[in-house]
Amino acid sequence: MFKKILIANRGEIALRIIRTCREMGIKTVAVYSTADRDSLHVRFADEAVCIGPPVSKQSYLSIPSIISAAEVTGADAIHPGYGFLSENAEFSQICADYGIKFIGATADQINSMGDKATAKATMKLAGVPVIPGSEGLLESIEQGKKLSAEMGYPVIIKATAGGGGRGMRIIRSESDFEKAWNDARTEAGAAFGNDGLYLEKFVEEPRHIEIQIVGDQFGKVCHLSERDCSIQRRHQKLVEETPSPIISPELREEMGQAAIKGAQAIGYEGAGTVEFLVDKHGKFYFMEMNTRIQVEHPITEEVTDFDLIKEQIKVAAGVEISGRNYTPKLYAMECRINAEDPANGFRPSPGKITVLHMPGGHGVRVDSHVYTGYTIPPNYDSMIAKLIVSGQSREEVITRMKRALQEFVIEGIKTTIPFHIKLMDDPGFKSGHFTTAFLETFDFSKL
């Protein structure tokens, strides 16, 4: 087992990893930018190293700075968390070259899933259902128009290196194709340095369902059931739940086995998710694979009583997984508490927290790095807490979540708490019958 793990991340996920390491008897090293010097992950780690200024490129995305911190402190492994360098193949390879274990996928595994066109081809060969579309990247507008006419509109073009909805456009007729093509290429090139696009049939009325998987160094892979991530705004998740209200035991097993086949096809090591779109007829299609831990992993932990961070560390150390597939014993839901103003287009709201009271009670968990007097910097993602609630039924979870949200007091900044409270009362949400487009018609006034 590792003696010391450096955590190449910040905020709540860094603190989450520190807690598991402490339970396992593993020393920790926090790295931080000057903007995060007062963050809890810096205080709670055994050691802390400042790696640069607030700008991510000069701190949390600076591979030389992070490797130097690992060497200076004698860390024998690096946990990247999520975001930043967690799916960076170059970073994974450099860690290997320096004899430091990267707690995550290998460079080859990240490369095979990081490019979405390659990932789709890999999954298709493995027998995983994929959305009809182009074989690889589109070479021209003409090729895209021809394929769209054959498949039938609507279609969607996506950036091969994309994420968060950038470089993505829905096209409903041929007359819209050229503008969508140009806009998507420009956006993708600016965001990712890669303007490659591929084309898919647009799945109407979809649900976004992901399967949590874990693979070890011996070729074994198991799944830990699904998470429903359909409550999104501009492709950014706001609420996740498990089990999904629309997934039957038979469909869960079918999707779980498909996810396992896909992971085995690349010899996957570590925790990850295989993401699917499920249409209104119950057919599912591979969308992408995330080769890292997910923001929403706690809801899976709550319904399976399984520490995913601990499993990541054990797998990286060469421990074999049990190989047993898990199914939910309870229901759980996560609300992302962001420093944003939902009544004004989710405008970021950095600043000092003047009053903070976190909810508690049976079935309530809060993962957060903030405290009274903490100043939220404007430099990073706006998520400041995750409120996770579990219970015996979906109805109980919604009732408990509303109670916990009403207890959650954050003053000095705007947050998404008022939005979540309103969502818990929404008849459409409570019914469980919604799609990824649900928030497009949601009333954000009077929050």
Distance separating the two termini: 49 Å
Tally of helical runs: 14
* Annotation, overall tally of beta strands: 22
Query: In percent, how helical is the residue content?
Result: 25-40%
Residue share in β-strands: 25-35%
Order of strands across the biggest sheet? 13-12-9-10-11-14-21-19
Q: Which architecture of the largest domain does the CATH hierarchy give at level 2?
A: 2-Layer Sandwich
Give start-end ranges of low-pLDDT stretches: none
CATH topology of the largest domain: D-amino Acid Aminotransferase, Chain A, domain 1
Give me the CATH superfamily of the largest domain: ATP-grasp fold, B domain
Supply the helix-strand structural class. alpha+beta
User: How would you state the average pLDDT, rounded?
Assistant: 95
Tell me the major beta sheet: 8 strands, antiparallel
GO biological process, one term: fatty acid biosynthetic process
GO molecular function, one term: biotin carboxylase activity
Function: This protein is a component of the acetyl coenzyme A carboxylase complex; first, biotin carboxylase catalyzes the carboxylation of the carrier protein and then the transcarboxylase transfers the carboxyl group to form malonyl-CoA.
EC number: 6.3.4.14
